[in-house]
Amino acid sequence: MSRWSVLGGGVAGLCVATLLTEQGETPEVILSDETPASHWAGGMLAPFCEGESAPEQVVELGQRAAEWWSQRVDGVAQQGTLVVAAPRDGAELTRFARMTREHQWRDPALLEPELAGRFARGLFFPGEAHLNPRDALQQLRATLEARGVPFHTGKPRGTLIDCRAIHAAARQPDLRAVRGEMLILQCDELHFSRPIRLLHPRFPCYLVPRADGHFMLGATMVESDDASAISARAMMELLSAAWTIHPALAEARIVESGTGRRPAYSHNVPEVRYRDGVFSLNGMYRHGFLLAPAMAQQLMQRLSQEVTHAN
Ligand SMILES: Cc1cc2nc3c(=O)[nH]c(=O)nc-3n(C[C@H](O)[C@H](O)[C@H](O)COP(=O)(O)OP(=O)(O)OC[C@H]3O[C@@H](n4cnc5c(N)ncnc54)[C@H](O)[C@@H]3O)c2cc1C
Question: What string of DSSP letters covers 80-121?
């Protein structure tokens, strides 16, 4: 019988299960019948850019993410992040530079030749990375299954580790949802090799390259528990911002759209908790791929403390 039951097969649950197996445990992963977990993420591992709005703790913990993922899945692109702004929004770029670190001022066209003539200057964050979140989770799951970890929708049999994200809100009332709308575009004309973030006073956006001419375009940040389809307004604003990055995107095909609910605590930083015999890892907010590895490690320490305490 599995000693640990991980509830939820999103990035938090799979990182926890992965670390458990690396410690010689064979947890079970309990899935829900809903749409695939962590499905809408951009897959950016961008601790320094996130430092613009996130606390230093996020920047610190996030710096381990690229290495953690590279050691466990294929396809982690260590190409950095490029941040640009339209000439009229140059002040935004200067402000972003002041709020962040580990960047260099660069001519965007030297990094992404297809941006030639579009932006006079850009901020390059060479230490950042990105991955395809769906591929990465599939790979983690395949590795777990190869190690004998059962995935099922039945009753949990071990000590619970709750990674149900927003679905745990009934148990954790301080958890809220932040709606994020996104698109997948296909555009064979562009070949960007790194995420491009466009700063804008009202409609910032980012474009994350995927394989086969696909790009993830995201994302809105709306304080709402509404998981319904992308709004017309969000789609118009995201597409208009994408067009500012490159006019070729006007001819892109919209191959997918989606809405995710980011699980967040009031300070927007994830937490490991333990209450009434149940462990939890939650509040990943907009940093599930960035922070789940480090937070899962914190959970491992908490498990061993509680187990030692109980003996
Ligand atoms: C548009 C968008 C873009 C994003 N981009 C990035 C990014 O670039 N980089 C980054 O690091 N993060 C990004 N994020 C954030 C990231 O996607 C989230 O932080 C992350 O997906 C949260 O993962 P999780 O495992 O906590 O929750 P989830 O992925 O929601 O997984 C929880 C799972 O638990 C399941 N569940 C519910 N009830 C039960 C039950 N009773 N038993 C078992 N399972 C249950 C749910 O169905 C769900 O599948 C983005 C988010 C959005 C919405």
Answer: -EEEEE-GGGHHHHHHHHHH--S-EEE-HHHH-GGGTTT-S-
Q: Is residue 26 domain-shared with residue 109, that is, in the same domain?
A: no
Separation of CA 166 and ligand 1 centre (Å): 8
Q: Which domain covers residue 218, as residue numbers?
A: 81-126+179-264
This prediction's pTM = 0.97
The band of 80, judged by pLDDT with boundaries at 50, 70 and 90, is very high
Q: Which atom of ligand 1 is found nearest the CA of 284?
A: 19
- Taking the centre of ligand 1 as the mean of its atom positions, its distance from the CA of residue 278, in whole angstroms, is 19
How confident is residue 311, by pLDDT bands cut at 50, 70 and 90?
A: low
Query: What CATH number has the domain bearing residue 47?
Result: 3.50.50.60
Task: Give the helix, strand, coil percentages of the chain, each rounded to 5.
Answer: 35, 25, 40
Total domains present in the chain: 2
| Model confidence at 105: pLDDT above 70 | yes
Rounded distance, CA 148 to CA 137, Å?
17
- Best residue among 262, 279, 299 to mutate for probing ligand 1, ranked by most atoms within 8 Å of CB: 262
In terms of domains, do 233 and 204 share one?
yes
160 and 295 part of one domain: yes
Instruction: Please identify, by atom number, the ligand 1 atom nearest to the C-alpha of residue 290.
Output: 11
Query: Smallest Cα–Cα separation from 137: which of 58, 73, 233, 45?
Result: 73
| 117 lies in the same domain as 185 | yes
27 and 59 fall within a common domain: yes
Nearest CA, atom 37, ligand 1: 164
Model confidence band, residue 37 (pLDDT cutoffs 50, 70, 90):
confident
